């Protein structure tokens, strides 16, 4: 997993109890399958092939331009989907469509993959406050700065919280959104909104994001982009 955000998107994955699962297609149908990482790094196959980047450049300029070539071609994925099929290619995600099918997906649809997922990786029960905290963070991103931080999130709620925040923001804006977890803090960023705000002259927000991208702590003013899980505890 990338710990330093870049402008390029990595593999289109969902996280299940901390494990990345790649969204894949067999090429023939519309089903979106899940593919797990291999145990031995380097012994699997890439989410896409080098070929896809090369051929893409020739006939459909820009389609893969928003993806990180090194990350997508890293041989880390199993040869088969969870449901046992040989897969063709990763399904497009935040970086846009891949190949001619033009499909973008953010969740699996194959019922067998989902059933296997449930059996092996039961989802933790969502905490009561998850929806509220996700909503507050989504509001901060969409209405204010284009980014937000969420502090004090329990480990077993991280994946579901990130998923929920991304879904809320996508539903409201239709723009790509990314989440990262660094030292226990969830960072949510929506570059399109952030750039728009920057153009509107929010220097403060720009400084905070720039500091974050350089690995420094953001200069804190009123911290209205920070939501803390522990603030919203229900006793
Ligand atoms: Zn499947």
What does this structure look like?
- This protein is of the alpha+beta class and about 240 residues long.
- It has 2 domains: about 15-120, no CATH class; about 130-230, no CATH class.
- The chain contains 7 helices and 8 strands.
- Strands 1, 2, 3 and 4 form a 4-stranded antiparallel sheet that branches. Strands 6-7-5-8 form a 4-stranded mixed sheet.
- Strand 1 (about 15) and strand 2 form a beta hairpin.
- Helix 4 (about 130-145) packs across helix 5 (about 160-175) and helix 4 runs parallel beside helix 6 (about 190-200).
- The longest helix is centred in the middle third of the chain and has 16 residues, at about 130-145.
- The chain is globular, with a radius of gyration of 18 Å.
- The two termini are about 35 Å apart.
Please supply descriptive tags for the structure shown above.
2 domains, 33% helix, 7 helices, four-stranded mixed β-sheet, 8 strands
């Amino acid at each position: 997993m990338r710990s330093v955000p870049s402008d390029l998107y990595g593999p289109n994955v969902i996280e299940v109890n901390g494990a990345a699962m790649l969204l894949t297609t067999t090429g023939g149908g519309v089903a979106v399958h899940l593919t797990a990482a291999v145990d031995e790094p380097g012994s699997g196959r890439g989410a896409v092939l080098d070929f896809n980047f090369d051929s893409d450049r020739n006939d459909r300029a820009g389609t893969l331009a928003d993806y990180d070539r090194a990350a997508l071609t890293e041989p880390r994925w199993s040869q088969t989907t969870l449901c046992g099929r040989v897969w063709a290619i990763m399904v497009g995600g935040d970086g846009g469509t891949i190949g001619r099918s033009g499909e973008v997906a953010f969740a699996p649809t194959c019922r067998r993959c989902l059933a296997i997922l449930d059996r092996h990786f039961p989802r933790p029960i969502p905490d009561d406050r998850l929806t509220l905290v996700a909503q507050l963070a989504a509001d901060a991103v969409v209405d204010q700065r284009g980014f937000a931080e969420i502090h004090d999130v329990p480990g077993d709620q991280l994946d579901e919280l990130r998923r929920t925040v991304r879904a809320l923001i996508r539903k409201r804006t239709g723009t790509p959104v990314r989440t990262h977890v660094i030292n226990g803090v969830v960072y949510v960023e929506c570059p399109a909104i952030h750039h728009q705000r920057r153009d509107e002259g929010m220097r403060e927000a720009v400084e905070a994001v720039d500091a974050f991208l350089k690995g420094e702590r953001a200069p804190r003013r009123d911290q209205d982009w920070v939501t803390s899980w522990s603030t919203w505890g229900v006793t």
